[in-house]
User: Fold these one by one.
Assistant:
Number 1:
Amino acid sequence: MAPAGTLDFRILGPFEVLSDGRPVPLGPGKERVLLAVLLLYRNERVSVDRLVDLLWDESPPESAPKMVQIYVSRLRRRLGRNERLTTQAAGYRLRVDRDELDLDRFERLAGEAREAASAGDAGSAAARLRDALLVWRGRALAEVAGGHFLEQERARLEELRLAALEERVEADLALGAGPALLDELQALVREHPLRERPSAQLMLALYRSGRQAEALSAYKELRDRLVGELGIEPGRPLKELEQAILRQDPALDAPVREQERHAAEKPPQRIARRRVAIPAAAGIAIAASVAVAIALSGRGEGRALLAADAVGIFRDGRIVDQARLGTAPAAVAAGDGGVWVASSSGNGVSDLDESTLDIRRTIPVGDSPSGIAVGRGAVWVTNGLDGTVSRIDPKAGRVVQTIQVGNGPAAIAYGLGSVWVANRADQTVSQIDPRTGNVLDTLAAGTDAAAIAAGEGAVWVVDQARGRIARLQPGFTEPVVTINVGNGPSAIALGARSVWVANTLDSTVSRLDPRSDRIVATIPVGAGPAGLAAAPDGIWVTSAFDRTFWRIDPATDRVDRRVRLGQGPVAVAGNGSGVVVATGPLPGSHRGGTLRVASGELPSSIDPLDGWWPAPMTNDGLTAFRRVGGVEGTQLVPDLAASLPTPTDGGTTYTFRLRRGIRYSDGRLVRPEDVRRAVRRALIVLHDPYYFGAIVGAGECAADPRRCDLARGIAIDRRASTVTFHLKAPDPEFLFKLALPAAFAVPEGTPDRHVGIRPVPATGPYEIAAYKPGRLIRFARNPRFHLWSAAAQPAGYPDRIIWHLGVSPAAQVAAVESEQADVAFDGVPTRRLAEVTTQYASRTRQNLLAGTTFMFLNTRVPPFDDVRVRRAISYAVDRGAVVRALGGPEHAQPTCQILPPNFAGYRPYCPYTLRPSAAGTWAAPDLSKAQRLIAGSGTRGAKVTVWIPPNHRPEGAVVVALLRQLGYRARGKLLGSDYYAKIGNSRLKVQAGVHTWLPDYPAAAGFLHALFSCEAFQPGTGANLNASEFCDRHVDRLIERARALEVTDPALASSLWSKIDHELVNEAPVVPLVNPTQVDFLSRRVGNYQFNPQWHMLLDQLWVR
């Protein structure tokens, strides 16, 4: 037993315990980790369940509780006093007295320093902070091998040390220091290039050293880093410091020292005033750390030991309780006795007891829940990928109603007696009656509807892309007014008779007076604010970038409290007496390992021109689709470009400024001409101007590659780092097209032909390390990659990805079953589907694809040149039989229309069913009506050949049998890989065929314009996508009108696309059959599954345990 003397616990460096100055032997492994955890939770009860979670992360052994008991027994013997480590209510408490822990000594000294600074005593503050920093002996908790919790604690403790170091420099600056601090500050900026505070301090020190130009250069370098890597501008205080340096503000000079003041022949009052002014001016510089951080007193600072993937309740900035969640949270709400947490990856809502935070149940909801609200005795959840809202009864603990709303529902709010849903794809707001669940109205938001709030007499909708909010009035179909706020607004809250908006890219919060619709205050906060909640004690703001939590005092419009969370907050909500915060995974905690993928023929090439995979993991374009799961994955964001431009010259000119400092994996910088080279290469290699035909000179380029010159169509300015596109006519989908692999930048030397086995140098987080066609692709981390936009190109989790090619679907499933592979990329084959989804339910994910399978009918060839025959086929086809032929509802859903569900412009519509209903869904075939139409056409007995590709034989067999049943002499013609070229050749007079269309980007034009416009019909060419050869000038005019409205009035455009879709259904150039779904099968090693509507499963975002 260890001696029972005075104990000294040391965690700020190598982990050790001293008793009366002599080291106490510490046990190995988990026993050492347990003591570290108990020290971090000193003087608090920690439950056994919590200790098990912290010691073994996500995979504790069954014996874990017993092992904790054994470790506690050993620790008691080592510490020598049983009363030190006591058992309390299924948990343990370690008593640590004042100053026995070095962390407590450090925090006490730092707190005393802050009090001295608040009192204006910079000398005492500097001395106390030096003493505090001397407590540190090296990296915190060194020589302790822990899991996620200790990783996050090391990061938090290092943040405390850095903050103290910055405050000590601040105190030195307040004392008049300048040149003496330069070496230290330059090293600090090099080590932490994205922290604003050290850069501000360096600027002030340089200025005081007579190096004004270098001070301004330091500002420019920081701004370039922030814009280039995070996509945000420096905070307002740093901008004010730059302006103060430019005008050589005397307030920036070093303060007059005491001895100088006695010698000066000036009135004492002026000296006193001067002494007060200087610390305030210094505060301008130093406040730039994270906007207003140093304006806070010691009592305004706080910390919270909030775990990763957890939810915590806070009052006055202090954590009251917390609970770990089984999956990553997406949204949180509180009310009706519970805390409700939606998980997009888990497709469920966790119901936690509000008083104990015990998880009572997990409630399955729809696909990719992303928003949650409580009101009128119910919990309301938006399901982003299936266009519905789930209504949960809190008492029953289950979904009691599923309500169809608009497309891409994201945010939701309760207020003004209704439930309000922001439909991001439609740019509309649905009003739901909370009593009946009926949709009462659909309002045009005119925004991308990123967030929503209801109250203060209106509904408020955030337009993230345009930097504004829309005020909607119930009863009015369009916004009453739109109000400009900051850049990249992403969250909204109501409180203190005001509307509050978090501007992520500006690092500010805007306060709006709802009576005047004017911005009355703009308040600097932490970097990248993304969450807001109103509470009795103020407005709370979360910042994921610096993992902090801020309180704004509405009485002063200033931040008066900051809490360091240690984790990135992903959602926040008020709960009556305080706020609830949900945190995501610890950055880097799931990084590492090798992901093993098995697939068949795809990807068939590593050239970005040849398909979707794997280019988005390795390379980048000017724009990108947000690389997340759920409906947010259809949002366009800047990638290599610093921002998304507003087109000029009537929509024909787009100018992009590239982010600086991005390199290819071979070390070369990405330059503006690389973008032009990529577009030119696409036109030459593909011989098709399909994507880029609107660019001046693109058509000539594709027609004659030898004379290809895009200088007039794509202008380059290397000095300004800009790329300017000049279009012949407006192209509303142009920014979407630039996000496709064909537009990904390629460096000089990339051949104007397919690259074969030599990959294009990478810009993304991965590079192709090896490629064996038809056998294997091996990905490794790109050593030149640095994070510039987590939205466009986040850092991947696996260190390596091994992609095995040429594996049959059945063999893929077998490999995942036996843990020889982690992902069956091609899904689960029909004959294994029931078994796999039953036996491995927790490892399968089903997603509806944004596509439609249809039977095209050639409107220029008998018998389908008669609209009666086309409609007859639509009435007669048994879509349920097609679903069964494909393997059941896990593989397909029946449809009567071209646009798929939850897609911009989709409105349910099905006239071709037995007993049509207002719901617009298919129920059963109507053979009698079909027979009457065919009889009237006089075409019974005609010969019909249905062309069938290899991947559509089940559907082909159903439609051929149907045609025979209707009296036609029908046969199927099976084709190979030449199918798509042949059906587009009008010279072959193909009568009918089966086809699936998944658009290249999430726009209705990608279906309706691409397949059914007169422009899409190109007779006599294999490039003809309009296999129905359909051309209706009235429909064409509607299509062009809808495309034009995409830019000026997206909500009205969505409504018009719906009308066009329904008109095409009536004309029946195609017979829509089903919307395909995919079932992904994963190994038990894999976590963090995310389904992106554009790129489908995000392989690089999977965790490998």
Number 2:
Amino acid sequence: MQFLHVPPNHIISPMFPADSTLVDLLQHRATHQPQQLSYVFLTNGETEEITLSYQTLTEKVMAIAAQLQAMNLQNERALLLYAPGLDFVTAFLGCLAAGVGAVPVYPPQGKQPLSRLEAIAADAEAKIVLTTNNFLAKIKQYFSETARFTYLTTDSLDESLALQWKQPNINSKTLAFLQYTSGSTGNPKGVMVSHGNLLQNSANIYRGFKHNDNSRVVSWLPHYHDMGLIGGILQPLYGGFPVILMSPSSFIRKPIRWLRAISRYGATTSGGPNFAYKRCVETITPKQKAGLDLSSWKIAFTGAESISSETLDQFAEAFAPCGFRREAFYPCYGLAEATLFVTGKVLTKSELRSQNSEVREPNLIRVDSEALQQNRVVVTIDETVKTQKIVSCGQPTSDETVIIVDPETLLPCSPEKVGEIWVSGASVAQGYWQQKEITEATFKAYLADTKEGTFLRTGDLGFLHDGELFVTGRLKDVIIIRGHNYYPQDIELTVENSHPAIRPNNCVATSITHEEEEKLLIIAEIKRKFLQKLNLEETITKIRANISQNHGIQTDNIVLVKQGSIPKTSSGKIQRQACKQAYLEQNLPTIESLQVFKSSPHAPSNLIQWLRNYANEHINSRLMDERRCIPPHIVLDFGNQGLLGMQVPPEYGGLGLNHGETMKVIEQLGAIDTTLSLFVGLNNILGIRPLLQFGSQALKEELLPMLATGRELAAFALTEPSAGSNPQAITSSAMPLSSDKWVLNGTKIWSGSAAWAGVINVFVQQKDAQGKFQGISSFAVRRGTPGLKQGPEALTLGMRGMVQNTVYLNNVPVSASQQLGDPGEGMKVAQDAMMYGRLAIAAASVGGMKRCAQLWHRYSSRRQISTGRLLDNPLVLARLNGLTAAITTVETLVTSIAQLLDQGQEVPIEAYTVCKMAAPEFYWQAADNLVQFLGGRGYIETNIAPQILRDARVLRIFEGPTETLTAFLGSRLIYQPKGLKRLLRDTLGVPEIYEQLQQTVEQIQYYRKSPFTEATKTKHWTAMLCGEVAMWGVLLAVLQAKAIATPLESLDRAIAWTKEHFQQKIAQGFIKTPDELVISSANKTTELIADYETAIGDIEQTLAGEDRELDELLRKQKNGEIREYSAVKKIERAEKPLSEEDWEKRGVIEDWLKNWLGKKLNLSPQTIDPKRAFADYGIDSVMAVELAQDLQEWLGHTQELEASLAWNFPNIKSLAKYLTTVASVAEDEAVEEILSMAEPEMMSAIKNASEEEIQTAISQEMAELESLLKGGYQR
């Protein structure tokens, strides 16, 4: 067990009893040291001084406190908004003297967001803002007019008010201030620090630093940060010695100012984070060093971020001529939750007095790097082992106890293990303000075995060695790749050293999940002076190569950003998690990037803005509708903008958008024109997605560049005259000609864009030579292939600008290279595309609904009726507000699913089903209401609304009619509830809704009397009822999950609206509908309708319409029926590949290496340069082993190849040359087999299902629910 507690020895006793306060301390100083200098502030960072004695300080503090007491603010919170200076010091102490909780916050600068300031003010429930006169007007602009603050300018108070001050009713447990840590903007965490915490921690610092009456402090650290406030302002007050303060910006602009202040005032204590020392080394010139005397500097503390031994070495060497001694370095560890100070370098009295080299330098050890990645500590001096240096952070004072604990098991770690640092003692703060659950989890931890506690869980990782603490990183920042732990600060240092253009201390190493695997992400700032002349590709290559060589990790994403882009805390610490989030949301000002996967090279915002501008000037929806055609300029322009290949990787010419971005673009298209949204969606999803997800590498390289840029379009042919969306009824077939060649025969109908397409994804029954069914298969068929014929166009109600036509397959030859997915498993391809298509339809519906709301509001706000403005009519307001709630609901559903997909999580079929059920129905209602409330204008074609209504109507049918899907969802809930259970309980975290759904199902089945006597119809009817309830349950769950993460008023409104619908649907499940009361049998119904013939006749119009046929005398031949082809002409096999003698061995091996590397790195083999090293492409140690193994197998080499093969040769070409001398290249067929790289792994759980499962799921959903309902399933 790693346990560290230092017994009290040679420790200075605290000067005040345990129940004292900071107010007692201030009064003590004013009484015993009234004229002594307490604070000096350098207004220009150099010589201009403002000073305060203890007496003057106390008078100013008591005046402020008296004013706050007069305003009855004791036990309230006050926001302190000050520029650096002594006004802050007096205001902070004034709050404490009045019993008011101080909340120090630095005013936003420049274009910094105000959201965090507003969030802190709201969380703290601050009643007053303290500031200065020259800041007041500016500060009032920070807050909205609704903010109920009182403002007090403390620099203009009459100091005679001090006489009215009264001793507040406070003690050591009273809240002194709230220290807001660097949490998220939406959820700030205020650490509650008491007077007792401050006094105890001040005593610990006093003892640890061996301060005395002759100590002097210089501090540039931020006043509102724990290190600057407690270490720089309160520690000198505690010790009774002066401090010289300056603004942080004074140091940042000219670091020499810090050292000159130390030299001028003979400071004994000063310090800062690691970057401060590094900045001095990099910016202070030899000329500036002249005259510096740093010999008085005894304690050069460093902490708050990772401590670099290299930085300490560089600083000590650079300033040794100025009298600085390396022994002065005082590494320490602390955190706001422990007030500030926890551990520091142990000093003896003899060391402190000594001026020679015998004084102990900071302790430093070397540990085995690979062992550390596995949380093991192996101290070594073996130079042949890869090691890293870690600087000790010393020991705790007598008040503190430090232990190392396994963060998962909560058991103490053995000495050779890395674990979480836990702390206990009187300095540990009281918890987080008004956050009980987080406080319990963080501040009240117990050991699992002994139940010893309570401890503070710091979230930091480290270990104890020889009684000293070594910190290795943050628990939440650790990068875990293939089971090994990598500390971001180590990788960030490697990145900084890769190129002089990279800004020191401005790099982020983190990880993001892709396909359930952690991948490395690097974000680095580039110095401004390098922007114009920097070779960005070379810089990225060097970064990738350095990381590969030093850490053995493949770097998947490297992003270079502009200076000042990386988010930091108020104290200058890099916020890795915030930076990662900005990257994922495409909010980083990227200069250049290497992106192997997922994240988009193009933010969608520019594309969306282009669409809005383009729609205003170049799109006429009515003309498209009337002419039944999308104009060529739109198709060409969309192709040039990348809209037709949104998710195609950039190496194939696409935009590489992720799922969330793609849905935002489709939403925008839906707002412009529903037809265009479906046209673009069809090409991207039904056309390109099957190729992208299931096509071979060769097929992708052949087709994607053309499709992504719009040079050709793609279509999807599944539906047949007798097969709707039911794959079981497909009759189109693929008959074999040979082992890898077939001919296709059949007819497909209603295939969108097929007449315009250069590629059609066709689904057929694959049969063997005896005609035996082997499963449904899919093939990508090119335009111009013999036997592929375009049939007549269907004249549709809506979506008239987009062609829907028949496709004839008459002995169409295809080969294995055109097959999508495995033979007989084409329904996986169809299922994947159709599920994603449902998500896209929902996104387009959101855009359409928003457009309806805009038009409806615009009209009703202008239209006057007898009672006044139409918008003020109660029914209009009710319907319009219901529409806004529906929009929020569906939009949340779409964004939530897209986010899950971008995170690599599984999305069950039920979620896509709800998308398709809810969104088109809500859109249709919005369109119908728009037409209705426009009155007569709604029936006029030129007023947009009629076309919107017609276009919206088909969405209720596409990709499965609402009624069919409702029964399908209900049957899943009743008989196969696992998917919904996983979605609601595990993914969304709302198990109570799932439980309510299950209870409703049981009650409906038990109590609900069916109007049908047959069991099958009863089950079908029950499934319909349960499906409606399930849809609203899923919508409510998505909203509630989102509201927990992001509380918004719009979500609250949508939740209330959805919850009421949910409860009403549950109630309706037990009530007979009017239709049920009059249900008759099918025969009786037929008789009823047959009687109508007597009343109205049986009318069928036969008068000829327009003659569209070519004159018989002008035809090439007479029209005839499209006949079925029964004879199949065998197509000869292609000739065999070249024989081995025709191959140049070296070229073959080179090609193999390029293909292998391309597959592993998700790159096109054509982009692999054989003259570059493997390291340049970021190959890691695991991949190096795989390469050796795969090479050995391919070459047929009996002797094992070295695992380090990739590192032993300068480039790919030289390795190929070496292998040529030792390899025996395989025979023709083996070469052909291996050179055709394996297809990418299927991402989703759907793709891992068997063909039978897929076909069953679709048949259940689309057309054969009866078969499901007859048999049922075991729950």
